[in-house]
Sequence to fold (175 residues):
Amino acid sequence: MNVLILGLGSVLMGDDAVGPWAIRLLEAGYELPPEVTMVDLGTPGPELAHYVSGLDALVVIDSVRHSSIAPGSVVEIRDEAILTHTPAPRLSPHDPNLRDALLASELLGGPPRRMVLFGVVPEKVALGTGLTTTVAAALPRLVRAVVDELAALGVPARKLDPGAAPTVWWERAAS
Fold:
């Protein structure tokens, strides 16, 4: 089993940093089995296809803009629904487009056999560091969803006791 947990989002754009935040919380609180790799890619461009091709399973963590769902809600999108989900408009060439990367992965070794996107609906995406309290409150549910997914895939994470504080370099750099 080859599983990738992929955190996406800009740490400089408020609630868009939910992917990097979740990755840091997972690193600090859990030991992952060797079959699981975890990467914070920030805001990748076309190279995203190289990361997602040839996997048994892909778990993506990102902010998910949705006008009819309340900010702070945890959203789950699975398998083929990821390909049919209409992404938000790209604002720059560095905005990740998971759908395009998965389609391009057909040429690079095939898309993951299983895919899930866990996201949090952002409250504020604007220049600046720090999550809103609404989105920060959703992080434990988001991390739990990822840990539960790993268990369902047969590659359970082991909770560290006590979990260390996450290393969130962008928050220190901004203060």
Helices lie at 18-29, 48-52, 79-84, 98-104, 133-152, 169-174. The two ends are 41 Å apart (CA to CA). The longest strand covers residues 36-42.
